Amino acid sequence: MRGLFITFEGLDGTGKTTQIHELETKLSELGLPYKKTREPGGTPIAEKIRDIILDPKNTEMCFQAEALLYAASRAQHVSEVIKPALEKGEIVICDRFFDSTLAYQGYARELSLEDLHYINNFAMQEVKPELTFLLDIPAAHTSERINSRELDRLDLEEMDFKNRVRAGFLKIADFEKNRVKVINASLGIQEIHDIIWEKTKSILKEKGMI
């Protein structure tokens, strides 16, 4: 049996970490095999790439290098973690995947979407999420949520950049309505979890996993 690949997308500060934990708890209660991971990162090699990408000192990084580093991290992540887990029939929950590349490097950085698709299709090795939850709130509302942590290179981008990222995510969701489910991230934690679980449960039943 092939597993289920679920991704969570959205700006930092929209509550992805909280909702991934809530879903993780539910799957654990049901005794379902799952693996939680993140991008960039998820493996020792990919985590080292993550450090390079997000280091605030790397202000000279060009957009093309940034996109290629994300793709390199993704290739290692897919090969070492995501693909093997899915082949074992596990549920993979990933904090960010290719949609983030399209939103950040494509719509916000204005790199060629065609080029991004090409290099990332190579990196993803035909592995794509079946279900994506996009937690959405205005970019201005995320600032207060992330100010309590150490800010990385992308956190320090201007608000206009973050607005373009959000708009990019919403365009992706509009193009892929069957896969991407937009959720109002200003709702309560339990209310958001209930929405996520109902959709997840439906797909798990369709696949015969519960």
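Next protein, fold it too.
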Amino acid sequence: MMKKEILIGFLVAVIATLFGFFIYVEFILNYEFSEAIKIINEENLWGKIIGLSAMPNILVFFLFLKKKQDYRARGVLLEIFILAFLILLSMFI
């Protein structure tokens, strides 16, 4: 039961990150989606964009804590740690 709750939290965090990425690329950048992806690739901005895209995870994390769903909040933290590791890797690649 505990692993299922952590997995649910992890998947919700992944969806929140993807939603944050879409919102950032679509509404903050002044380019079309495909052109923005091309610019992100050319200037190697993946780490910065992923970091900004993870901001909705803060809301998800505190929502789970408020609802006393601690294991789901742990899943969100797990996803945040994985994103931080990916951002660290993107700095050196």
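About the second fold: The radius of gyration is 15 Å.
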